[in-house]
Every structure is written in structure tokens, then in C-alpha cells.
Amino acid sequence: QVQLVESGGGLVQAGGSLRLSCAASGRTFSSYVMGWFRQAPGKEREFVAAIRCSVGSTCYADFVKGRFTISRDNAKNTVYLQMNSLKPEDTDVYYCAADSYIRRTISSRPREYEYWGQGTQVTVSS
């Protein structure tokens, strides 16, 4: 069983920055793909970014490329999402997720991530 705990959300003005953290339990963290997703009320959960913790390869949604950076610290079992140049449309609940299945490519599909955190609210004011 893997438990994920997000932190770092909050209120920020447009153009500002936030760093989200996701602390994971479990001894095999380094073999997982860790992802960040976001979801607004009444909308489907959408992929933001993911990282294959064993090698550090990353994948980003087009709408965050150049603004968000995903990284991990395997020693701390923690993955981060650095969010810069935030826009009001980035306002959402952000979720951390873990995919323990070994795949050829990093998945952007929420259904392929078995473990989820409780979410952290990010609000960007205009």
C-alpha cells in the first residue's frame, strides 16, 4: 500500500509561483511513475506532469510546458511540482498520483494510476 500526502497549495496572484510537494510512503518509490493531475468542480481530472522516478524522465501537458517543472528526491520519497507564471486558469485542486506498473512510456491517463493523494487547492487570482 502506498500513501501520498500533498502540500504546498494556496492562494497566489497571477504571475506568481508555488511549489507543491507529495510525500510518498513505501520502499519502492524509486520504481514508480509519479504524476500530478488537476481537477475543477464538474470537470474531468486532467494530466499535468509526471516523472519516472528511477531515471528522472519527465512528461508534461502542453499547457504547462515552460512554466511547471516536476522533480523528485528519491531519498526523501518526495516529488515536487514547481509552478511558475501561474494563471487564473491554473486554479484547481491538484492531486499527486503513483503508477507502480512498469510501462514503456509514462502514462497521462488517470485510470492507470493506482494511488492518489487527497488533493491540495491552488487558487490564482487575477
Verbal overview:
The chain has 126 residues and is mostly beta strands. Helix content is 0%, strand content 48%. The chain has no helices and eleven strands. It has strands at 4-7, 10-13, 18-24, 33-39, 46-52, 57-60, 68-73, 78-83, 92-99, 115-116, 120-125. Strands 2, 4, 5, 6, 9, 10 and 11 form a seven-stranded mixed beta sheet that branches. A four-stranded antiparallel beta sheet has the order 1-3-8-7, with no helix packed on it. β5 (46-52) and β6 form a beta hairpin.
Number of strands: 11
Order of helix and strand elements from N to C terminus: EEEEEEEEEEE
The average pLDDT is 94
Binned strand content: over 45%
Distance between the termini: 40 Å
Query: Sheet with the most strands?
Result: 7 strands, mixed
Instruction: Kindly state the percentage of residues in helix.
Output: under 10%
Number of H- or I-type helical stretches:
0
What is the 3D shape?
A: globular
The structural class is mainly beta
Which regions are unreliable across 5 or more consecutive residues at pLDDT < 50?
none
* Radius of gyration, CA atoms, in whole angstroms: 13 Å
Summary keywords:
single chain, 126 residues, mainly beta, seven-stranded mixed β-sheet, four-stranded antiparallel β-sheet, 11 strands, 0% helix, 48% strand
In short:
With 126 residues, this protein is an all-beta fold. The protein contains no helices and 11 strands.
